Amino acid sequence: MKTIEEIRKEIEAFQIENAETLEQFRLQFLTKKSEIQALFAELKNMQPEERKAFGQIINELKNAATERFNSFKEISEMQTSTRQQIADVTRPAQNVEVGSMHPISIMMNQVRRIFEDIGFTAVTGPDVEDDWHVFTALNFPEEHPARDMQDTFFIDLHPDVLLRTHTSSLQVRTMENQKPPIRVICPGRVFRNEAITSRAHCIFHQVEGLYVAESVSFADMKQTLLYFAQRMFGPEVRIRLRPSYFPFTEPSAEMDISCNICGGAGCNLCKHTGWVEILGCGMVDPNVLDNCGIDSKKYSGFAFGLGIERMTMLKYTTNDIRLYFENDVRFLRQFKAATK
Ligand code: DAH
Q: Is it the case that residue 182 has pLDDT exceeding 60?
């Protein structure tokens, strides 16, 4: 007959891994015919004191076996019920609330992607600028109204420090740091001291574009902008360039697209003209190239700046610019589909 110690070691060493081995364990240690029960049968042949001590030992043995059996059973039942829960494909899915991108971000990314496809690289720069990058290097005359506190937010710290009024400052920063050929697209936020109405805001967004290389022509600009308009508003869109004036371009123009609401027939949005303005553009003034350390005899370029709010209003037919800044989720939620 095995010693009690041997049986105890067997109980501890028994590998219980699944229902089958658990049953083997039960048969070996916990049934009426088990070795432990046989030990209990011995009790009746013993003297009372001996019986007491021996009874205690074999009871401990039986408890140890019962405990191993129960704890394995409990763990495996827990695992089975978790597995059943995971596998229950009929349980209703939890609703995960996802946000949407802001319409202005959607539009800025779209503009950026269209130009990146034809070799432009996106660059960004500071919102708080100095006079040189926003005005002086861009050929603004001393007495230009944009230099007036009426129109521009100056920072109290220093008379030279201001919130940029246009992303054209990034033309200067780029040309100061890169050699031609230069092809950049610069999205950013701009600030003007204006009364807030349904059509104007003191904060808005622009995307600036700049191309400088040898023998860049006005025709290159026109074709690039036509490509952009057609990708943004559809292949049937038409463009028109009207002569204009900016200190940093010569010649300068403003570009209209055929109204995408009425298709050019005339409606409220286009004020019955069939055309809506979306950007300013022109050939970079040689003074600006020279101010930024680029040889204007060797290189030429074109630049453009487009207003993102205006284009977003056109694209999504929104009639009040203030909606973009109020962050009312009932408005923003509508752009969920466009986010994807
Ligand atoms: N900076 C101009 C504005 O804010 C827009 C603009 C016009 C940018 C002509 C240009 C340009 O690059 O060539 O109104």
A: yes
